[in-house]
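so my prof wants the structure for this chain in the tokens format not the other one, which i didnt know existed until like an hour ago. anyway here's the sequence
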Amino acid sequence: MFFNLVMKNSKRNRQENGLFFVSLIVSIIAFYIILSLENQDVIIFLKTMESDAVNRLLLLTPALYAGSLFILFFLVYFAGKYQLERRSHELGMYLMLGMRRSRLFSMLLVEEIWNSIISLVIGIPIAIFISEMISMITAKVVGLGIIGHNFSFSIWAVLWTIVGYFLIRLTALLILSGNTAKKEIMQLLSESQDKKHKVHNRMFIVIKLLLGVILLSIAYGLAIVGVAWTSIEIMGITVILGLCGTFLLFHGIGILFEIILKNRNKKNGLEVFTFRQLQENVFLKSTSLAISSLLVLMALCFFGYGVAVSFNSSSKDQHVLHYTFQGDEQHIKSELDKSQLNDYINEIFDVKLGRLKDYNEESSFLAGNLIEAVAEQKDSQDKDILLNNLQSFDDPYLISLSGYNNILKLAGKDTIKLGENQAALFNGIDFSYGNSAELLRSSLKKNVMIKIENEEYELVEQLYQDKIVTDRSININYAVIVSDNVFDRIAYLEPEDHFWNATLKDDFVKKNGLMQGIRQVNELLNKTDIKYESYLQNMGRQLFYTVAASYTTIYLAIIFLIIANTFIGVQFLMQQQKTKRRYQTIIRLGCSYKDLCKSARNQIKWYFSFPILVAVIGSIFGIRALFSGVATSEMKSNVDTLMIIAVPIVLVLFVVEICYIIAVMRISDKQIHSLMDVKREE
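here's what i got, hopefully its the right format
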């Protein structure tokens, strides 16, 4: 009898609170995916090259897990509170019929355990499947699929998911059941009463609204121009301004509803009822909605940023070189031939880098004309930084034209053609930031002249930024590309600055795949004494940035989105439950079920729309701020493109919001239907 009652109640709770149940299943999936991260193919691959960085990333997993549990606890608590309030009359009847409080607590505990087991049974298999799909898709996208996929099931991830999930659910139940046990039977049986609300000064509300708009505008301004990231202090001020502005905005928004109500009073009574409900739910629940809006804002920012970073890393792979060797040409060729590596590698070519033979600090190299051309550009922060960097451009590297042209040929680009006394400007992509490259290109259109060894050279209009080595053998800020004759005449070449580049043969790559091909060649090269670097190192580093940025931010986005939407929905349903006497009065006055549902649905649309709208507007600035402060130099140079990717992603999340709104509407309809049943019984 006892267990039949538990099963019946559990089933009814799942049906009546499907939104909450599904949200918890999604949370279980998110828990498992982040906890099983180290078992995924891409992480296993990264450990072979970026082990220290990966280990530091994995050290964040417990922190993400603990933080998620802490936040989800409040979600479970509020949802559980709503469930118990709905069942208040039912629980009072159990006690009235003689059930002991200890027996009642046992019933609630078993119900909670049973529902938790069902959600885990559903969630964990789905989580394992999705984790496998993520692992396989990621491996395929980055070119690792050929290496071989291993099943990434993690027993530890399952155990910690179960432990954490039960921990927050049972802790919330203990607190809620303790509060319920303190209530007298008559309190449980009595209908919920509307609370009396404090009357606020209208002028004070207007001040709050205006001040909130002003503070938010300042915070968004600091974020969008990048000033917020210049120091921890300014970032702290920006965050505080944003938080205060959001709370003040929601506290002050009630004045708008009062204005709307004035224009609605002449209309039918149901519309007045609808807007009165909205006024109380928004104006008097402003703190809850502000918190919900901030959670949605964080979710949108993290999701837009994470997806854009992932897309940028996978779609902007512009590598052309597979290997860079350093050392004597004859020794390198001899070792390659000895190890039969010539069967896999195309002919190597050199890129000569040198310094001026007769360098004199005062007159050997002068770039004053270039600095003047940059100074004539439109004032901006990027221009000031560029001018500051060019002040140290007095002893540049020189790059041989033939070597650089070989790189351009491999990339399928037009080669450089230099006339007599002409040169080209090189700017390392790793040292390019913001709008600096565009400033240089615009400056080069003004017939810029430089002096090298007392001879004038005209810089061609094109700026060159192609990588001259495979990975990080050398990083150059600025250099000058000169013809081979000029290079041999004025440049001094250090042995360690002589780089030999190579690519794998097309048929070998086609047969084995790029990643697998490089791994095979690396195994052979490791048996020689050749100093080399391969594209695998570059790939590993970029892949790590993708995983670190996209995996963690998308995970946090999912957690925040679940919590925010469920929190908004539960808050509305709790408010509807507490004010059900009003609904019963409207029903007795002759309001139909259809009209009352329409009223509630309008309330839900407004209740969800306002915090979400504020969050969407804020997310555009928030994502831009993340790209300004938490991004590699390559990403910073592509901020506009990343924003074009991120903004539609934010809009796609409206589909998720619509699903939540529809779910809350259906639950609301059921609550109203139960009130209609009460009327018929009377």
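also thought this was worth mentioning. The chain has a mean pLDDT of 77.
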